[in-house]
Amino acid sequence: MPSTGQPLVSVSADKTYGEAPLSVSFTITAIPARGSISKLIIDYGNGTQEDITENLKENVAYASHTYNSVGTFKVRVSAFDKNGSSSTELQIITNDKPLVSNLKAYTNPTFTKEATDFMPYSTVFIKADCMDSRGIGYVMIDWGDGVKEQVFGECVGSHEYSKEGVYTIKMTVYEVVLNAPYPLTNTASLTINIKYGIEPENNPPNISIQAENASGEAPLEVTLYVGISDPDGSISEVKVDWGDGNAETLGTSDQIGTRDGRTIYKKTHIYSTPGLFRITVIAKDDKGEVSTDTTYVSVASSKPVLAVTFKDHLGQNPKDKIYPIDMTVYNEQATISADLLAYDLTSYDIVTVTREDYADNSTRIIIWRNPRGRTLHQSRIRKNGI
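User: That's the sequence. What structure does it adopt?
Assistant: Structure tokens below.
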């Protein structure tokens, strides 16, 4: 007879974590304290109960249940005999495994040139679409040539093959482990060919552009700097669309030198009317690949109008007034204050107003156009005078 004076009951499962739908087999042990087990109930924790009394043979019963949804379920088994009842619990967790799809190989690190055939010692770039409700823990890439690589954060990788052959790349995605005995995984694979005699893919030109004096009052002269390079060829044409109906081709006369392997062009353009204009630079290489880059110019019709009004402690205009100072009296001295008025701010202006107080009892109000622009206006106010 159990020392507790109540039935002894225990439950175990062949699995407590996995992907939904998850089929779980339970083994239940129920030993009566007195007499026999009159009732044995299992609650699967998802709103489903089952009477398994008739399944009990030699104090052992078996049950199975399928969890179709994702969640955490508390399984409870209760046993009853003539002395009373007792119960035990077990937790089952179901989850969705990671999704991994669209695994492809590319010739470039920007993943825009798909390929399945590569030359030995050329770099193979791979990328897949991955997602998991718990988050991606890490990615294991088996490159098929005996090399395995662990990647964190995203489903991408790159590798070089030294020998010809047909290789199957496998990407296995592991979920983040939270209150689970092990992570759920999913795997995608693709096959590539490594062989000599393959013409390499052509890569498009690289472009970098920078516009100086890109905002201001019309007429506005903008200076554009363009850096162009081609990783596997030469540049055949460079054009600039100024966004105001004008376009032109950049030639050798516009080149001002090279930097970091790029040819630098300089070109100026005058915008005579206000508006927001998009500058587009188009570069074409000797094999017809085209790249573009853009920037914007904002042209206003006029400068912003700013004004500062001053008043004294009597609320009057202090201009041309004289304030006698009694050095024996601290209070009731002349105090000058200022109201900053700003209006007609055009769309291209970002104005910052700062106040700086100095040890000589003066205050300076500074108005900046753009975070790193030039100062438009400064007003310095001195107590007891301007």
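The two ends are 102 Å apart (CA to CA).
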